[in-house]
Amino acid sequence: MIAPSTSALGAAFDQAHSRLYDLSDEAPSVVALVEYRQRPVDFAVEMLGVPRHTLEWALNPGYYDENSIRVHRWDGQAEPIVAMLNAVRDGLDVCVEAATGTQKSFTCAVLVLWFLACWEGAIVKTFAPTEAQLAAYMWMEIRKLWPAFQARFPSARLLSLEIRMRGGDDKSWGAAGVAVRKRAGEEVSVGAQGMHAPHMLLIYEEAPGIEYPVILAGENTCTAPHNIRVAVGNPDNKQDSLHRFGFDDFDRPREGLRCIRISALDHPNVVSADADIVPGAASVRSVSRRLADYGEQDRIYKSRVRGLSPDEAADALIKLEWVRRAQLRWESKQDREILEARGKGQRSLGVDVANSESGDKAAIARFRGAVCTEVDAFACPDANNLGYQVHLEVREQSIDDDHVGIDGVGVGAGTVNKTKEDKHTFRSLLGGNEPEGFIDDGGEPMEENWSDLRSQMWWILREDLRRNRIALPPDKELEKDLITPTWESVKSKITVESKRTLKKRLGHSPNKGDAVVYGNYVRPRDPVVSERPKAALSIRERVLAELNAMDEGPAKAKKYHGTMRQ
8-306 — its CATH code? Predict the structure, then answer.
């Protein structure tokens, strides 16, 4: 027996309602099951006929020994199905990152029916990327449970993706499935803002495939005390909609929200030595196969077996570990001095333009050598004034025009034109243009084939990060901007995700990331030296290294003694 919740929310509802609705004498009565409001697990068992041991996993063999001593160490949330049901019972929003085959869709189906059964006038909306996904997962599970549910509510009708508790055309108490197609985010999110009810449950299934504005719209429409959101899915990465729903930019669970991770390693089919306790769910065989195919540290194994959210997408252009290494170099005095000396220590600027008082921000990335010293994002109501601001900074810092890169697309044209009035010839970077010839820090031309200049500039930053050639300030917003873009090969050309789609996924313009991309592209470059202890060099390498250093003057010869060119 699950102990009743002591939440003030649940108690208030119980005291306020004993019988919620009666139809007229001509139709069977529809009476909400208020006695189950605090007992969703009991509802599933007693009203829907769900075996209790499929919900309370530790009732099965393998979790405790014969002396009732726990022997199974939970990899994810302990008793995750019960935790998920009880979190909604307590009025909390819930984020569920789950392995495959761990009953998340089934549990959502139970939630839909429990919520409708316990509150008169309740509205439930379920969202998934496509109608096929709606029909194949949660709503298929609803259909399996429907005979037991309708035995208690004979007036209720189950349509294709809809439940009407009062039957007929009455939609004032019921549930509906809504497909959120990739390009329909704006329309669906606007429609979602009009949904209001005292008792409302929004469920986002396969949440990583749902555009974040749709989920955000749900937050804005859930205004009543008993309006709850649940997002579930197999995690793709920490930038997807599911993880962003549950966690803030510092990867902390959001306030008032319960985050639950369901691991296949905890499932009774696996813990109980592959007993078929829940037919069709996770198994020892499926876990062992993926372990053999991918390895314990692989992102697919972690995501699909353990429910762990990878740092970045599989097709991410830039890996988080590369960014973190660049941040460590920024914090290291020795590494920073070496990188600041690159390109003779000259300064450079990357400028991402905006023209809005309250919308997208502008950003300036400031470089010294190969070190991004800072990235400043700020409101920019006038793109022309930004051009004058850049002019003043260039004059004060004696920055060469060749080492100032400005996004010249759209409103950026006004910034560029203003700088021309001030007699500057800054580099106007038009992302849609053809790629340019480029010599990297090793003194070699880059031979990759890019689809456009934007893809080339982002790829150059990627390679500089991957090869430990630059330093970046520890900035969470910048970090997120950099690891979110994806890439693909289109007709043998490297193509980086467009700014338009990136902005939609991020929820804001990647102003800091773009500014760093521009600044890194225009910074002065010279051949890279890699630090190696003098004792590790051969005699020939040592002589060549010292001769190379002497070419740059006595001071640098001393500083770089014991190094060699790549």
Answer: 3.40.50.300
